[in-house]
Structure formats: C-alpha cells, structure tokens
Amino acid sequence: MSEFDIIKQFFTRPAHHTNLSVGDDAALINVSKGYELTVSTDMLVADTHFFHDAAPYDIGWKSLAVNVSDMAAMSSQPKWATLAIALPHVNETWLSEFSRGFFACANTFNVDLIGGDTTRGPLNISVTIMGEVPAGKALRRDGAKVGDDIWISGALGDAALGLAHLKNKLHSKFNLDDGYIEYCLEALHRPQPRVALGLALVDLAHSAIDISDGLLSDLGHILSASKVGATIQLSKLPCSLFISKHINEKQIQQCILAGGDDYELCFTAPQKNRSAIEKISDELHLPIALAGNIHAGAGLVVLDENKHKVILGKTGYDHFA
Amino acid sequence: MSEFDIIKQFFTRPAHHTNLSVGDDAALINVSKGYELTVSTDMLVADTHFFHDAAPYDIGWKSLAVNVSDMAAMSSQPKWATLAIALPHVNETWLSEFSRGFFACANTFNVDLIGGDTTRGPLNISVTIMGEVPAGKALRRDGAKVGDDIWISGALGDAALGLAHLKNKLHSKFNLDDGYIEYCLEALHRPQPRVALGLALVDLAHSAIDISDGLLSDLGHILSASKVGATIQLSKLPCSLFISKHINEKQIQQCILAGGDDYELCFTAPQKNRSAIEKISDELHLPIALAGNIHAGAGLVVLDENKHKVILGKTGYDHFA
User: Fold this and answer.
1) How high is the ipTM of this complex?
2) Listing from the earlier edge strand, what are the strands of the sheet with A207-210?
3) Which chain B residues are within 8 Å of A81, Cβ to Cβ?
C-alpha cells in the first residue's frame, strides 16, 4: 500500500465547505466576510498522549476532538482541519479504525479534512484546525475582568480518574464500579468538545479557555494573561457523584484540579449574565457551574467547604517540567 | 525548563500580519478580501526526513522551507505557519539553533509563526503553512492542457546527490570535488523555495507542482490530475555541470528524475507565454528550463539525446511503497 493509496482510502472524504481539498500542494478555502480565521495545532504522541495500543478509533476521535475544543474555547465555529500522521508501519485495520474515529468527530462537528501528510516514523498525530469567529468577538485568555464570575462546564476529573485506573495508580481505598469506570474511560478516550457552548458565549463571556492541562494550570493562563487573581470553591466545582463524595481526598482533588484531559470550558463572565448563562445550560442540557470569581491581584486560591485554603500540589501537566 | 518557557524563549517572535499570535487557544488572522486561503502541512521525522544528528539550524530552515515551497507551487503568498514539535528531551543549544534556522526562513519569506504545540516524544516536526492567493487564480495540478510547455526551475538532482554522498551510496567512479559537495549539501539542507517565481506565474501557467518526491512522481501527479500525457527530454532538464557531464549514468539519472528534495517548481504553460516566462527567469536571476511538452494520452516518456526512451527505475520517494 503506497502513501497515496493510504491517503485515498483512509483520508479522502467529501468536503462540504472547501474549494479544493486533499490532493494538491495546498487546499483552498474561503473565509466568510466579517469573520476572522482561528488556527490551532495539537500534536499527539504515542505513549505520551495515548497508549500505543489504545483503540485506534479513540485515537482518531481524540486527535481531532482536542483541536475542536480549542475552537470552542475561542467561540469559533470549527470548519477545516489538516492531519499529519507518522506511522511505524502500515496496518490497514488500524488505519481503518483510526479513520473511522477521526471522521466520526469530523462529521459531528462539520469539519472538512482538507489536507495533511502521511509519513513513516514513530506514531505521531498532528492536527491543525481552522475555524471562523465574527471579527473582534473571539473569547481570548486576556479578557477576564475584576468582578467576573468563573464558570466551568460539564464535569472535571473523570478522565484523570480513568487514566489513573488504567495505570493502576488509583489508591486501593477507591472502589470504582464497572459502570463508573466505563464512564471515566469514555471521558478520557472520547472527549466531547463544547462547541455549542463556546458559540453561545460569544456575547456573554469575557474570556475562556478549554481545560486540557488541568483547571489550575488553564485558569492560571487566564489569570496571568488578564493580570487578575481568582478564588474558586472546591465544593462548587462540577463533578460526578463519586468525586463529590471523595472531594477531601488528595488524589481526587488532584484529578479535578490538575488532572487535565477534561476538555471542558472554563470561562469568565460579568454577574449580569448569570441568568443568560443558566438558560444556555438548560438549552444545551449541559451543566455549567458557577465556581468562583475574579478579583484584583494575582494567583489562584482554592477554598474548601470550611473556607480553608486547599494546599495545591502539581498544578497541571507540563511535558518538560 | 517548562513547556511554556520553551515556547516563550524559542518560538515567540513579533508577528507582522496576525491579529493574535502565539499564546491563546488559537491564533486569529484576517484573510484579505478577494483572496482564498491556501493551507498545507508537512511533517518531518528524524531519520526519515533528516539525520537525527543533522545541524539543528538546517532542520529548522528546512521544516519551514518545504512548506513554503507548497505555497510557491500554488502561486500563493505564504503568510502564516504553526509549528508542532515533539522533542525527546530539552536541549537548549539544539532548540536555539533550530529556532534560529526556522526564523531565518520565516523572515526570508515574511511568514509569521502564529501557534503550535510543544511536547515530548521522538523528534518530529509538523508545520502547517497558510497563504493567500487571488480567488480562482491558484495554480493547481489539474490545469495542464494539451500543447502546454513543461518548465522546470533551478537545477535538479543536487540534493539527491548530496544525500547519496552522506550515505556513502555514491558509486566510486564519481569524484565530487569539495566545492561541489558543499553545493549539493546546501541544496539538500537549505532548499530555497521558489516563491517569487510561483507568484510571477499566476497568470502565465496552467498548472504547477513543487518537486519534493522526484520529478517523475511529481510531474506524474500533474498528468493524472489533468488527464494528459507528457514527453520530456533528458538533455533539457536543468542541472549542474557535473550532472550534465554524467547524464547517461543510471545513478545520476535517478538523482535528477526520482531523487526528490529539489523544491524546484515544475509547471506547464501555453507556448504563447514563452517569452514572458524567459523574462521572469531573467528578472529573478533563476534559470527556468523548457524541458518537454504536454500531449494527449497518459503517462510520461523521457527521451535521451538520441530520442530513445530512457528506462525509468524508481519514480520517486514513497514512505510505504
């Protein structure tokens, strides 16, 4: 199977909003009038971002989903992606499943795969995603204002708990039932980027980020870019019943504060928009928790139910720290 | 050194035509009115595309240059790039040199680095480049017409000869002098994408491709996309004096026909544009050779000086063939 056979069989699908797609030196696209193009890149490496023997469908889904999540965090409509993939060898079953997962995500979010590269090497997947946002409206990290509420979508920590389970690193005192393990692994392997939420927030939020490295680290980026401080309450963080029940356990706290791989949105918005945000939560059937507030100063404080400061360990994932 | 330190120190430089650059979930750019966005991705893997111990300056230059070359082949002005890089470990000297080479190329072609990803893994560099072309004007692979001339810029085969030299695979009967070795290694390590030529051809050429995998393979893409055939003459192919002298040697023929890594442009244009193309060649101080013609049918014939068909071996580089 040649490089070109692989591209044709596994990575060429009809495009819906692309002038020229896979197969030339470059793809051609039109950016709508009055919109800015948003561009983001994420690279996933075997045994760094996923186990090399993970289900290829999941690797395909997640490779695109983590990029789609970056569009959501900018309040941008994802539209186009390129895929560069290095493969140690050609395994048609693996490629077929990878492609199925990738395009399942692409179809869900109406993203055209418009180009890329296929080469030999240690398994590595690099996706660049492009989307559109009305000019001047993108939700940036530097827009948080003193007095803003801090909101977090969905639930935190399940993906990290799933990963700890897979690595046999979960403390023996935690007994996860099979259904909850399944739920955590679903969160880890097939994250659901919050595109509809991101788009709905365009005129409501001041700043946003997606939680990929862990809440402390990612909210920290908003704080430093916006030159503000924040306080959040542990008990207000959105999480599953299991995590709520064990919220005072260190390992569980690490999962929700610094576990990463959540792909939920953390955003700040003025208090006057509370009811509008709650309405969006209802409409999207997506929990959105009011977890804290932005204030003057710098840095992040996490308070427990007794208003004592939670001692923070690792704040998030850093590949080289 | 953390991931964020690496990004700040080595991969954050002032942007010139970008609304929001490195440091948020996505970059923000404006595409000029009346233009299409061109998008292309190339991935370079250690010991597949370059020796792992190659000079990091050259790896940086080439990572971007091969992508810029794809813009040239579409008659597109390169403007923005993202860089995803997996590193086995942090080596500040290596990173500093890689960054210097990457930005030397970026500055030469006025490309803003607008985002990317930095992660741990076997050395892998994935660049996505974006550019602008007047709407409807891109030079595609499917535009070649019967009767078109086939033109090739610069010189072919030097990079492949340099690679054969480095791998000690050059037949012992070929004696390269030190100056010529230097010239071949320069072609291999620091290719010069033909952006000015690509832009100048916008209204003159019918189709174009950059020669990255080898002339036979790349011109073959134009032929199959355009549903035409072609004949080229070996003696008309542009090449160095050394290669001309040994043009009947099989290994030398392989270098110019199927060596790859040339990053010259191969394009087709109607005969009426000959003098305009020769004028561009003069203005750019860049040789452009008229090497053959497009005719009805399919496939590519290469003729030697006696008008005999040259027996073709490997047609180009395929990572999985």
Assistant:
1) 0.94
2) A207-210, A265-269, A149-153, A288-295, A229-233, A299-303
3) none
H helices, E strands: number in chain B: 10, 11
Map residue A294 onto helix, strand or coil.
Answer: strand
Look at residue B174 and tell me whether its pLDDT is greater than 80.
yes
Q: Mark yes or no for CB contact A126/B41 under 8 Å.
A: yes
Name the band, by pLDDT with cuts 50, 70 and 90, for residue B48: confident
**Cα first-last separation, chain A:** 40
CB-based contact A138:A74 (threshold 8 Å):
yes
Q: Which residues on adjacent β-strands are paired with residue A291?
A: none
State which H helix or E strand residue A187 sits in. Answer: helix A178-189
CA distance B183 to B188: 9
Provide the CA A141 distance to its chain's centre, in angstroms.
15
User: In this structure, are residues A316 and A244 in contact, taking their beta carbons and an 8 Å threshold?
Assistant: no
How far is the C-alpha of A146 from the C-alpha of A231, rounded, in Å?
Answer: 11
Whether the Cβ atoms of residue A14 and residue A106 lie closer than 8 Å to each other: no
Sorted by sequence, the CB contacts under 8 Å of residue B296 that are 6+ apart come out as B146, B228, B229
Place of tokens 């290829």: A56
Numbers of helices and strands, H then E, in chain A? 10, 11
Over residues A290-298, the mean pLDDT reads 97
The structure tokens 């955003």 sit at: A267
Q: Compute the distance between CA of residue A54 and CA of residue B262 in angstroms, rounded to an integer.
A: 38
- Cα–Cα–Cα angle for A45, A48, A53, rounded to 5 degrees: 80
Per-residue pLDDT tens over the stretch B120-166: 999 999 999 999 999 999 999 999 999 999 999 999 999 999 999 99
Sheet containing B77-87, strands listed edge to edge, beginning at the edge strand earlier in sequence: A27-29, B35-45, B124-134, B77-87, B112-120
Interacting residues of A225 by C-beta distance below 8 A, sequence separation 6+: A140, A141, A142, A144, A207, B23, B24
Cβ within 8 Å, pair A85-B20: no
Q: In what order do the strands lie in the sheet with A35-45?
A: A112-120, A77-87, A124-134, A35-45, B27-29
What the block records as the tokens of A176 is: 């996860």
Tokens of A287: 């929990």
Measured distance CA(A312)–CA(A253) in Å, rounded: 9
What residue has token string 């994250």? A191
Type of residue numbered B95: L
pTM: 0.95
Cα separation, B158 vs B262, in Å, equals 8
Which of chain A's residues have a Cβ under 8 Å away from the Cβ of B82? 39-41, 128
Q: Give the minimum alpha-carbon distance from B280 to chain A in angstroms, rounded to a whole number.
A: 22
Over residues A67-74, the mean pLDDT reads 98
What tens digit of pLDDT does each residue of A150-176 get?
Answer: 999 999 999 999 999 999 999 988 888
- What are the chain B neighbours of A24 within 8 Å (beta carbons)? 74, 140-142, 225
Residues 6+ apart with CB under 8 A from B14: none
Confidence band, pLDDT 50/70/90 cuts, at residue B3: confident
Contacts of B95 (CB under 8 A, 6+ apart): B6, B9, B10, B56, B87
pLDDT digits 0-9 by tens, B69-87: 999 999 999 999 999 999 9
State the smallest CA–CA distance between residue A111 and chain B in angstroms. Answer: 15
Expressed in percent and rounded to 5, the helix, strand and coil fractions of chain B are 35, 25, 40
* CB nearest to A48's CB, from B27, B120, B140: B120
